[in-house]
Amino acid sequence: MAYLELRDLHRAFGSVVALKGIDVALEQGEFLSLLGPSGCGKTTALRLVAGFDRPDAGSILVDDKDVTRMSPNKRDMGMVFQAYSLFPNMTAAQNVEFGLKIRRHKRQARHSRVPELLELVGLGDAGNRYPHQLSGGMQQRVALARALAIEPRVLLLDEPLSALDAKVRVQLREEIRRIQLELGITTLYVTHDQEEALSISDHVAVMYGGRIEQMGTPVEMYNTPATPFVAEFIGTMNRLEATVVDGGDGEVDHKGTRLRVEAARGLPRGERVLVLIRPESLELEPAESGPGPEGGLVGEVLTHTFLGSTTRVKVIGAGVDLIADVPTSRIASVPVGMSVIARVPAEGVRLLSLAEQPASAEPVPAGP
Amino acid sequence: MRRKRIAPAAVIWLLVGAAYFFIPLIATLLFSLRKTSTGHCCSLAAYGYIVHDPQFWSTLRLSFQLALETIAISLVLFVPTVYWVHLRLPRLRPVLAFLALIPFVVPPIVLVVGLLDFYKGSPQWYYGSPYGFLATAYVILAFPYMFFSLDAGFRAIDVHTLTEASQSLGASWWTTMFRVILPNIRVAALGGAFLTLAIVMGEFTMASLAAFHTFPTFIQYVNETKAYPAAAVSLMSFGITWLAMLALLMVGRGRPGRVQIAGGH
Amino acid sequence: MKTGRRRLPLAWLGAVPFFLYALLFLFIPAASIIAGAFKDAKGHRTLSNIHQVFQSQYIDAFRTSIEISVVTALLGGAVGLAIAYAALREGTPRWIRSGMTTFSGVAANFGGIPLAFAFIATLGSVGIATQFIDNVFGVNIYNSPVNFAIWSKTGVEITYLYFQMPLMILVIAPAIDGLRREWREAASNLGASSWQYWRHVGLPILMPSILGAMILLFGNSFAAYATAYGLTSGAIPLVPIVIGNFYTGDVLSNPHLAQALAFGMFVVLGAMMLLYVPLQRRASRWSR
Fold first, then answer.
1. Is the Cβ pair B1, A53 closer than 8 Å?
2. In chain C, which residue's Cα lies nearest the Cα of B30?
3. Cα dist. C148→C67, C71, C135 in Å?
4. What's the DSSP call for residue A357?
5. Looking at the predicted structure, is the pLDDT value of residue B249 above 90?
6. Per DSSP, what are the bridge partners of residue A351?
7. DSSP sequence for A147-208
8. Does C105 reach chain A within 8 Å, measured CB to CB?
9. Chains with ≥3 Cβ pairs under 8 A against A?
10. Which one of A110, A203, B19, B75 is at 20 to 30 Å from C167 when CA atoms are compared?
């Protein structure tokens, strides 16, 4: 049974519709990320769950109880904000203690629990410092400890790492996940950073324009994006718009070039599709050697971008704009300026249907 | 964009504030419209009385001219100083900011006592003339407001870059000051000027003790002699302050500045 | 920009006109007050003026001045705070906020004689409000048991509030703005009610600014002359009024006494300044 449920939530601000009916269900102990660009509605959804806003329609249930109309201070959820949420007039320890104080825990209990929590987030000796004496990363750790102190039923995080340096972000996100697993808290996490979401979540829900485009495990989201937006948003993708020519053979036409795509088998002729190929799956060969240009896209190597163990190669040509990730050790085989053929690999290609109606106006060239 | 509704407690306090603000003004208005014969509404005789009193015009003119003089001296004295401090003597800036708090410890009542005593033996063209004694005192009163206005204005522009750019193009100090710097702090200077105007037009303490006949002293004279005209002239004085503040707001529109506070009590 | 020691003196010349002016028209006159306070009619050093200040009529003036200043600072501060918060909190339309700022700016400047008369027109013996209360409630506030008078201490306090409240609003508004929404939400999220938020977070954060503002209000009231004069024609025992009487009345006495009283004002206001500066520093430390 789902522990945290969002049912058909709608929210509009004047003429701007922020949420167009979203449904989310989390099991107890699950870590779900709401991922999307700014304005997609993810923060709105989180704030509805926290109680800082009321939905226009829909409901929120925790452990089968409807909390939609409950005020935020009664929901028993812990929230970590993006920044600036620590009370400046209190030390780190006093901040962490705050929720316990409100709940009238005994002084002794508070004073033993607070150091435990600070220890948990790696700030054992910073308890007496004030927020303005702590770095951004440390402040967020305190914010996390403070939210966890009240042993909430649900943990909510609103882009907690966006305001931090890149290195701190990576370090901290792993700690958040570690702590979450250790304590087994149901967690809803909002971010616009797809790498962050994919690396630490049990499930990811990609949002766009107030709706959930796709929800699934990180692997599913990466390998099998269900919509063009998801494909674009998660990882880097080569996108080729094409029209099915021969469903039996799996042949498609991309701007005049015929390509064979396994996944196109069985599709009606004329159907418009989007062929998605990951950069690491795209194969490059020098244009002179091997079979002719048929079945591949011809272009010229424009740039190399060194990324460490791989190098990103940009290939430009007539109707061709591709990215291929090549192991750096083999980069010499495709120098800048060389003419290459990019071949659609047999595996690792995803196909998405673009439109219902076939593009019947396009003339089909006569066969050889 | 949160469409929350206004809290009921907020409404109450805002109404309290609005009432306290408007009731005395309405009362003054009603008072000013009373007929001397009946003690009730409605007549413009009180306003007529004031407008036909030559002293009204002479004191109003004096105060206005004093204001202009004060503004002129203040600008000539403070603009180059604040400019220079921003450009060459940044360490002096906190000193100036601290000095701007001095009037808190030396309010008008105290300042006028000191000035009257210290300059007792000075020539009559200074000591006996409002354009001498009073104007120089008013410049001191205006200083904190002028300073904060100008300081904010100079902080908003990059003084170093502008000056160096101007000089590298061959401009003299004069040209730089008049063609480059002044136009860019125009808004701040105007803001300070309007505040000074409000202060001088409302300053009673020093003028009264130094026995000069400015507009506020005229108002007090009417206050002590005729009730309904006193209401009329008080309202007019309020109108002048209001206009000065409105001008200040117009001038400061679009700038994320603080509203400056003056006080002539 | 240290390009050699010869540069330095020249740059400092630029500040001379201003400091010269301040010296001539601010510092030296102020110093002459301090010096004069300790001189007698013949110009000899004496403490007799100071001694006289501690006499009942003058000490009464200090007492009354301080009392009025404390009352208007606390009351004006509290009400100003409530109004400012009402206008700035969530849910209040934006136009109210700018309206409040505008009116506060005007009201803070509307003081002195015109203000005094406005309150005479309102609460004077034949004032509009006085008559209204008489007509509607049948109570003449100028008679017993109320025994109110606009020229009394209470009348002065009520009038002073007219510029004290707006001053508070203008000074405290930036501090209220500085209260981040995240703090309120975090407190709520951790289980705190509205009252608990204010008690543990909101008020403690605002306190240095509130205290600093109240000190400003105290000084503002203590130094006020024109309004009190307009209300009472110089009849109320306030320190500035007493000083003024040396110049406007026919009090033929020791001018050095006036200076001693002014010196007394220095002491009180100087003490306030000493309290104000560290409070300001505290307040700015937390507005990160």
1. no
2. C128
3. 18, 17, 17
4. S
5. no
6. A275
7. HHHT--SEEEEESTTTTS-HHHHHHHHHHHHHHHHHHT-EEEEEES-HHHHHHH-SEEEEEE
8. no
9. B, C
10. B75
Tell me how far apart the alpha carbons of residues B148 and B170 are, in angstroms, rounded to a whole number: 31
Q: Rounded CA gap, A290 and A294, in Å?
A: 11
Q: Which of A146, A123, A49 has the alpha carbon at shortest distance from C201?
A: A146
Containing H/E element for B265? none
Residue ranges covered by each domain of chain C: 38-286
**Residue C282 backbone phi and psi in degrees, to 5:** -60, -45
pLDDT digits (tens, 9 = 90+) for A227-271: 888 988 888 888 888 888 887 777 888 887 888 887 778 888 888
As given in the structure block, the two tokens for residue A189 are 């996490």
Closest CA to A119 of A90, A99, A92: A92
B3 in A contact zone (CB under 8 Å): yes
The one-letter code for the residue type at C101 is T
Angle, vertex CA B148, rays to CA B144 and CA B151, nearest 5: 130
Distances (CA, A) of B119 to B74, B124, C116, C250: 21, 10, 31, 21
Give partners of C (≥3 CB pairs < 8 A). Answer: A, B
Alpha-carbon distance C239 to C256, whole Å? 15
Residue A175 has pLDDT above 70, yes or no: yes
Q: How confident is the model at residue A67 (pLDDT cuts 50, 70, 90)?
A: very high
- C78/chain A closest Cα distance in angstroms: 21
Q: Give the nearest partner residue to C113 out of B198, B223, B241, using CB atoms.
A: B223
Neighbours of C21 (CB within 10 A): 18
Tens-place pLDDT, residues C205-230: 999 889 989 999 999 999 999 999 99
Domain C38-286 has CATH 1.10.3720.10: yes
A288-333 pLDDT tens trace: 765 566 668 888 899 999 988 999 999 998 778 889 999 988 888 8
Structure tokens given for A155: 């943990």
The amino acid sitting at B104 is: F
* Average of per-residue pLDDT values in chain A: 87
The residues pairing with A323 across neighbouring beta strands, listed in sequence order, are: A314
What does DSSP assign to residue C39? B
- pLDDT tens digits for range B173-201: 888 888 888 888 888 888 888 889 988 99
Domains detected in chain B = 52-251 (1.10.3720.10)
Residue A10 CA neighbour count, 13 Å, CB half: 6
Residues in chain B, overall count: 265
The pair of three-digit structure tokens given for residue A168, joined into one six-digit string: 């701190």
Q: Which of A79, A83, A88 sits opposite C205 (nearest CB)?
A: A88
- Identify how many contiguous H helices and E strands chain C contains and give both numbers: 15, 0
Provide the token pair at B231.
């209401």
Check CB contact under 8 Å for B14 and C170: no
End-to-end CA distance of chain A: give it in Å, rounded: 60
Kindly report the length of chain C: 288
Cβ–Cβ under 8 Å, residues B189 and B150: yes
Is pLDDT at C126 greater than 70 in this prediction?
A: yes
The whole-model pTM stands at 0.79
List chains touching B (3+ CB pairs under 8 A): A, C
Nearest to B52 by CA among B193, B229, B215: B229
ipTM rounded to 2 decimals: 0.84
> Residues of A48-74 as b/e, b for ≥16 C-beta within 10 angstroms?
bbbbbbebeebebbbeeeebbeeebbe
CB contact under 8 A, A52 and C196: no
Chain centroid to Cα A281, Å, comes to 21
